[in-house]
Design goal:
By secondary structure, this protein is of the alpha+beta class. The protein has one domain: Class I glutamine amidotransferase (GATase) domain (Rossmann fold, 3-Layer(aba) Sandwich), CATH 3.40.50.880. It is built from 3 helices and 8 strands. The termini are far apart.
Length: 137
Amino acid sequence: MGIVDADSAEHGRASQNLVIAPVSCAMPDRRPGAPKLSGSARVRIQAGTRLAAIYGATDCEEEYFCNYEVNPAYVRQFEAAGLRLSAFDENGELRAVELPDHVFFIATLFQPHLSSAEGSPHPLIVAYLAAVAARRA
C-alpha cells in the first residue's frame, strides 16, 4: 500500500500509521484474563467471495482470542490495494480478507483452529488442505 511507516500497535512503536490497532470493543462473554476479543461471535460473509463458497453460507459463528484488529481507517486502502473484504462482524468491523486471484489467500481475525475438533475440522482448514493437495497433484 506504500505506507512507509505502517506498523501494528502490538509492537509499541511510535508510527503515525498503525494499520493494526487494539480491538475497539470487548466481547460480552469475555473470559477472565483472556484477550479483549475472546469468545464466539457472528460473522457476516460477503456473497460471491471465496469464503462464502467455502462455507456455503453468508453467516457463521466463529471463535476469537486476540487483542488487535485491522484499523478501520485503513479498510478502504486495503480494498484499493487489491484485498477483497470478505467478512465483517455484526458491528461492521472487518473480520476477513482475501486475494481473489491468489491460489489460496484468506486472512481472518477469527481463529479456525478454535472451532475444529477431531473428526470435524473447520471448513477453512479443509479448504486450505484441499488447495495444497491440488497444487501438489
